[in-house]
Design goal:
Length: 309
Amino acid sequence: AAVSNAVVSIAITTGNGKALGSGVIFDKEGHIITNNHVVAGASEIQVTLADGRVYDAETTGTDPATDLAVIQLKDAPDNLTVAQLGDSDKLATGQDVMAIGNPLGLSSTVTTGIISALDRPVVNSQNEDGSGGSASSAVYTNAIQIDAAINPGNSGGPLFDEKGRVIGITSSIATMGRSSSGEGGSGSIGIGFAIPVKLADKVAKQLIKSGTATHAYLGVTLDTDGATADGEKRAGAKITSVEGGSPADKAGLKKGDVVIAIDGKTTAQGSALTGYVRQYSANDKVKLTVIRDSKKQDIDVTLAERKDS
Protein backbone atom coordinates (compact mmCIF):
# COMPACT_ATOMS: atom_id res chain seq x y z
CA ALA A 1 0.00 0.00 0.00
CA ALA A 2 2.80 2.42 0.87
CA VAL A 3 4.34 1.79 -2.53
CA SER A 4 1.15 2.58 -4.44
CA ASN A 5 0.55 5.71 -2.33
CA ALA A 6 3.61 7.29 -3.96
CA VAL A 7 2.08 6.90 -7.44
CA VAL A 8 -0.17 9.62 -8.87
CA SER A 9 -2.48 10.10 -11.83
CA ILE A 10 -1.73 13.16 -13.97
CA ALA A 11 -4.52 14.69 -16.07
CA ILE A 12 -3.41 17.37 -18.49
CA THR A 13 -5.23 19.77 -20.78
CA THR A 14 -3.65 20.91 -24.03
CA GLY A 15 -4.87 22.57 -27.19
CA ASN A 16 -5.65 19.10 -28.52
CA GLY A 17 -7.84 18.07 -25.58
CA LYS A 18 -7.23 16.06 -22.43
CA ALA A 19 -4.93 13.12 -21.71
CA LEU A 20 -3.80 11.03 -18.79
CA GLY A 21 -0.40 9.97 -17.55
CA SER A 22 1.32 8.84 -14.37
CA GLY A 23 4.00 10.07 -12.01
CA VAL A 24 5.79 9.31 -8.76
CA ILE A 25 6.18 11.55 -5.71
CA PHE A 26 9.83 12.62 -5.44
CA ASP A 27 9.91 14.69 -2.25
CA LYS A 28 7.87 16.16 0.61
CA GLU A 29 7.59 19.50 -1.20
CA GLY A 30 5.26 17.88 -3.72
CA HIS A 31 7.63 17.48 -6.64
CA ILE A 32 6.62 14.65 -8.97
CA ILE A 33 8.71 12.92 -11.63
CA THR A 34 6.97 12.07 -14.90
CA ASN A 35 7.72 12.01 -18.63
CA ASN A 36 8.25 15.15 -20.64
CA HIS A 37 5.83 13.89 -23.29
CA VAL A 38 3.11 13.66 -20.63
CA VAL A 39 3.19 17.35 -19.65
CA ALA A 40 4.81 19.14 -22.61
CA GLY A 41 2.43 21.76 -23.95
CA ALA A 42 0.03 21.46 -21.01
CA SER A 43 -2.14 24.47 -20.25
CA GLU A 44 -3.54 22.84 -17.12
CA ILE A 45 -2.29 20.00 -14.93
CA GLN A 46 -4.27 18.19 -12.23
CA VAL A 47 -2.84 15.45 -10.05
CA THR A 48 -4.90 12.82 -8.27
CA LEU A 49 -3.24 11.11 -5.31
CA ALA A 50 -3.78 7.44 -4.54
CA ASP A 51 -6.38 8.33 -1.87
CA GLY A 52 -8.42 10.40 -4.32
CA ARG A 53 -7.34 13.91 -3.32
CA VAL A 54 -6.97 16.21 -6.33
CA TYR A 55 -4.46 19.07 -6.63
CA ASP A 56 -3.53 21.55 -9.31
CA ALA A 57 0.11 21.37 -10.34
CA GLU A 58 2.58 23.42 -12.32
CA THR A 59 5.61 22.45 -14.35
CA THR A 60 8.93 22.86 -12.54
CA GLY A 61 11.07 21.92 -15.52
CA THR A 62 11.26 19.61 -18.53
CA ASP A 63 14.10 17.81 -20.27
CA PRO A 64 13.14 16.66 -23.78
CA ALA A 65 16.55 15.03 -24.28
CA THR A 66 15.75 12.36 -21.68
CA ASP A 67 11.93 12.56 -21.82
CA LEU A 68 11.81 13.51 -18.14
CA ALA A 69 9.92 16.28 -16.37
CA VAL A 70 9.17 17.47 -12.86
CA ILE A 71 5.89 19.04 -11.81
CA GLN A 72 4.92 20.35 -8.36
CA LEU A 73 1.64 20.27 -6.48
CA LYS A 74 0.20 23.64 -5.56
CA ASP A 75 -0.43 23.83 -1.80
CA ALA A 76 1.00 20.34 -1.33
CA PRO A 77 -0.22 18.51 1.80
CA ASP A 78 2.24 17.61 4.55
CA ASN A 79 1.46 13.88 4.53
CA LEU A 80 2.68 12.86 1.08
CA THR A 81 4.15 9.39 0.61
CA VAL A 82 7.56 9.86 -0.99
CA ALA A 83 8.91 7.03 -3.12
CA GLN A 84 12.07 5.24 -2.06
CA LEU A 85 14.63 5.17 -4.86
CA GLY A 86 16.67 2.09 -5.67
CA ASP A 87 19.94 1.60 -7.52
CA SER A 88 19.54 1.03 -11.26
CA ASP A 89 23.25 0.20 -11.55
CA LYS A 90 22.73 -3.02 -9.59
CA LEU A 91 19.91 -4.55 -11.62
CA ALA A 92 20.07 -8.00 -13.20
CA THR A 93 18.38 -9.54 -16.21
CA GLY A 94 15.53 -11.80 -15.05
CA GLN A 95 14.88 -9.76 -11.90
CA ASP A 96 11.22 -9.35 -10.86
CA VAL A 97 9.69 -5.90 -11.41
CA MET A 98 6.34 -4.20 -10.91
CA ALA A 99 4.90 -1.20 -12.76
CA ILE A 100 2.08 0.98 -11.42
CA GLY A 101 0.23 3.50 -13.53
CA ASN A 102 -3.05 4.47 -15.14
CA PRO A 103 -3.28 2.46 -18.37
CA LEU A 104 -6.35 3.40 -20.42
CA GLY A 105 -7.57 5.50 -17.49
CA LEU A 106 -7.66 2.58 -15.04
CA SER A 107 -6.01 4.22 -12.02
CA SER A 108 -3.50 2.44 -9.78
CA THR A 109 -3.17 -0.55 -12.09
CA VAL A 110 -0.35 -2.94 -11.18
CA THR A 111 1.46 -5.09 -13.74
CA THR A 112 4.37 -7.40 -13.08
CA GLY A 113 7.12 -9.03 -15.07
CA ILE A 114 10.88 -9.34 -15.29
CA ILE A 115 13.77 -7.31 -16.58
CA SER A 116 14.24 -8.60 -20.12
CA ALA A 117 17.43 -6.64 -20.88
CA LEU A 118 19.56 -3.84 -19.50
CA ASP A 119 21.10 -0.87 -21.32
CA ARG A 120 18.85 -1.41 -24.32
CA PRO A 121 19.44 1.48 -26.76
CA VAL A 122 16.10 3.13 -27.52
CA VAL A 123 15.62 6.16 -29.75
CA ASN A 124 12.29 7.96 -29.90
CA SER A 125 11.43 10.98 -32.02
CA GLN A 126 8.60 12.40 -30.02
CA ASN A 127 5.50 13.91 -31.56
CA GLU A 128 1.87 14.26 -30.54
CA ASP A 129 0.74 11.01 -28.97
CA GLY A 130 -2.00 9.44 -26.94
CA SER A 131 -0.47 10.52 -23.66
CA GLY A 132 -0.56 14.20 -24.59
CA GLY A 133 2.18 16.71 -25.11
CA SER A 134 4.79 17.01 -27.80
CA ALA A 135 8.53 17.25 -28.05
CA SER A 136 10.63 17.68 -31.13
CA SER A 137 13.99 16.39 -29.92
CA ALA A 138 15.05 12.78 -30.22
CA VAL A 139 15.38 10.86 -26.96
CA TYR A 140 18.34 8.50 -26.55
CA THR A 141 17.95 6.12 -23.65
CA ASN A 142 19.94 3.08 -22.58
CA ALA A 143 16.77 1.70 -21.10
CA ILE A 144 15.61 -1.05 -18.79
CA GLN A 145 13.61 -3.42 -21.01
CA ILE A 146 10.71 -5.16 -19.26
CA ASP A 147 7.89 -7.52 -20.17
CA ALA A 148 5.37 -6.11 -17.66
CA ALA A 149 2.36 -4.75 -19.59
CA ILE A 150 2.71 -1.03 -20.37
CA ASN A 151 -0.07 0.87 -22.16
CA PRO A 152 -1.28 4.47 -22.76
CA GLY A 153 -1.53 6.15 -19.35
CA ASN A 154 1.45 4.31 -17.86
CA SER A 155 3.81 7.04 -19.13
CA GLY A 156 5.79 8.63 -16.32
CA GLY A 157 4.85 6.01 -13.76
CA PRO A 158 7.37 4.15 -11.61
CA LEU A 159 8.96 0.77 -12.12
CA PHE A 160 9.61 -0.94 -8.78
CA ASP A 161 11.93 -3.74 -7.73
CA GLU A 162 10.84 -6.59 -5.48
CA LYS A 163 11.50 -4.46 -2.38
CA GLY A 164 9.30 -1.58 -3.49
CA ARG A 165 12.12 0.73 -4.55
CA VAL A 166 11.79 2.81 -7.71
CA ILE A 167 14.32 1.61 -10.27
CA GLY A 168 12.97 3.32 -13.36
CA ILE A 169 10.37 5.59 -14.96
CA THR A 170 8.27 3.83 -17.61
CA SER A 171 8.41 5.78 -20.85
CA SER A 172 7.75 3.81 -24.03
CA ILE A 173 7.00 0.47 -25.63
CA ALA A 174 7.86 -1.31 -28.83
CA THR A 175 4.88 -1.87 -31.11
CA MET A 176 4.69 -3.81 -34.34
CA GLY A 177 7.00 -2.01 -36.73
CA ARG A 178 8.04 0.89 -34.49
CA SER A 179 9.11 2.09 -31.08
CA SER A 180 6.49 4.31 -29.55
CA SER A 181 7.06 6.98 -26.92
CA GLY A 182 3.91 7.34 -24.91
CA GLU A 183 2.80 3.77 -25.58
CA GLY A 184 0.78 4.65 -28.63
CA GLY A 185 -0.01 2.34 -31.53
CA SER A 186 -1.30 -1.15 -30.89
CA GLY A 187 -0.58 -1.29 -27.17
CA SER A 188 1.59 -3.64 -25.17
CA ILE A 189 3.21 -6.63 -26.84
CA GLY A 190 5.43 -7.34 -23.85
CA ILE A 191 8.34 -5.09 -24.77
CA GLY A 192 8.39 -2.00 -22.57
CA PHE A 193 11.14 0.44 -21.66
CA ALA A 194 11.93 2.43 -18.52
CA ILE A 195 14.42 5.24 -17.91
CA PRO A 196 16.92 4.12 -15.22
CA VAL A 197 16.26 5.84 -11.89
CA LYS A 198 19.88 6.97 -11.56
CA LEU A 199 19.39 9.20 -14.60
CA ALA A 200 15.88 10.24 -13.51
CA ASP A 201 17.14 11.25 -10.06
CA LYS A 202 20.00 13.30 -11.52
CA VAL A 203 17.77 15.11 -14.01
CA ALA A 204 15.00 15.70 -11.46
CA LYS A 205 17.40 17.39 -9.04
CA GLN A 206 18.66 19.67 -11.82
CA LEU A 207 15.11 20.57 -12.88
CA ILE A 208 14.10 21.38 -9.30
CA LYS A 209 17.20 23.52 -8.80
CA SER A 210 17.16 25.49 -12.06
CA GLY A 211 14.27 24.38 -14.24
CA THR A 212 16.61 22.98 -16.87
CA ALA A 213 18.97 20.03 -17.23
CA THR A 214 22.36 19.72 -18.88
CA HIS A 215 24.05 16.70 -20.40
CA ALA A 216 27.60 15.71 -21.16
CA TYR A 217 28.61 15.48 -24.79
CA LEU A 218 31.47 14.21 -26.92
CA GLY A 219 31.04 16.42 -29.96
CA VAL A 220 30.78 13.75 -32.64
CA THR A 221 28.23 12.43 -35.10
CA LEU A 222 27.79 8.69 -35.07
CA ASP A 223 26.68 5.76 -37.15
CA THR A 224 26.53 2.05 -36.37
CA ASP A 225 29.23 0.00 -38.05
CA GLY A 226 31.83 -2.67 -37.35
CA ALA A 227 35.61 -2.85 -37.32
CA THR A 228 38.18 -5.61 -37.09
CA ALA A 229 41.04 -5.74 -34.59
CA ASP A 230 43.17 -8.68 -33.43
CA GLY A 231 41.33 -10.92 -35.88
CA GLU A 232 37.91 -10.18 -34.39
CA LYS A 233 35.18 -8.04 -35.90
CA ARG A 234 33.27 -5.95 -33.38
CA ALA A 235 30.13 -3.86 -33.76
CA GLY A 236 30.44 -0.31 -32.53
CA ALA A 237 29.65 3.38 -32.82
CA LYS A 238 31.47 4.73 -35.87
CA ILE A 239 32.50 8.37 -35.73
CA THR A 240 31.50 10.12 -38.97
CA SER A 241 32.58 13.63 -37.96
CA VAL A 242 34.26 15.41 -35.06
CA GLU A 243 33.31 18.92 -33.93
CA GLY A 244 36.26 21.27 -33.66
CA GLY A 245 37.14 22.20 -30.09
CA SER A 246 34.88 19.51 -28.64
CA PRO A 247 35.92 16.99 -25.96
CA ALA A 248 36.34 14.39 -28.70
CA ASP A 249 38.58 16.72 -30.73
CA LYS A 250 40.72 17.58 -27.72
CA ALA A 251 41.13 13.87 -26.88
CA GLY A 252 42.30 13.05 -30.40
CA LEU A 253 39.30 11.08 -31.65
CA LYS A 254 39.12 10.95 -35.44
CA LYS A 255 36.60 10.40 -38.19
CA GLY A 256 36.45 6.68 -38.91
CA ASP A 257 37.19 5.58 -35.34
CA VAL A 258 34.82 2.87 -34.12
CA VAL A 259 34.04 3.11 -30.41
CA ILE A 260 33.25 -0.33 -28.99
CA ALA A 261 33.07 0.52 -25.27
CA ILE A 262 32.89 3.38 -22.77
CA ASP A 263 34.31 2.66 -19.33
CA GLY A 264 34.08 -1.02 -20.18
CA LYS A 265 30.40 -0.89 -21.19
CA THR A 266 29.75 -2.19 -24.69
CA THR A 267 28.63 0.32 -27.32
CA ALA A 268 27.53 -1.85 -30.22
CA GLN A 269 25.40 0.95 -31.70
CA GLY A 270 25.81 4.69 -32.18
CA SER A 271 22.69 5.29 -30.09
CA ALA A 272 24.16 3.26 -27.22
CA LEU A 273 27.19 5.55 -26.99
CA THR A 274 24.97 8.65 -27.09
CA GLY A 275 22.77 7.23 -24.34
CA TYR A 276 25.74 6.46 -22.11
CA VAL A 277 27.38 9.85 -22.60
CA ARG A 278 24.18 11.66 -21.55
CA GLN A 279 24.37 9.91 -18.19
CA TYR A 280 27.65 11.66 -17.34
CA SER A 281 28.31 15.20 -16.11
CA ALA A 282 30.72 17.99 -17.00
CA ASN A 283 34.38 17.23 -16.31
CA ASP A 284 33.76 13.49 -15.94
CA LYS A 285 36.61 11.48 -17.40
CA VAL A 286 35.73 8.40 -19.44
CA LYS A 287 37.78 5.75 -21.17
CA LEU A 288 36.71 4.97 -24.73
CA THR A 289 37.84 1.72 -26.30
CA VAL A 290 38.39 2.50 -29.97
CA ILE A 291 39.36 0.52 -33.07
CA ARG A 292 41.52 2.60 -35.43
CA ASP A 293 43.49 1.21 -38.37
CA SER A 294 42.63 -2.35 -37.25
CA LYS A 295 44.16 -1.75 -33.82
CA LYS A 296 42.33 -1.48 -30.51
CA GLN A 297 43.30 1.31 -28.14
CA ASP A 298 41.96 3.18 -25.13
CA ILE A 299 41.47 6.94 -25.33
CA ASP A 300 40.71 9.06 -22.26
CA VAL A 301 38.19 11.84 -22.77
CA THR A 302 37.17 14.62 -20.38
CA LEU A 303 33.54 15.34 -21.15
CA ALA A 304 32.02 18.81 -21.28
CA GLU A 305 28.40 19.69 -20.65
CA ARG A 306 26.05 21.25 -23.14
CA LYS A 307 22.65 22.65 -22.21
CA ASP A 308 19.93 21.18 -24.41
CA SER A 309 17.53 23.71 -25.89
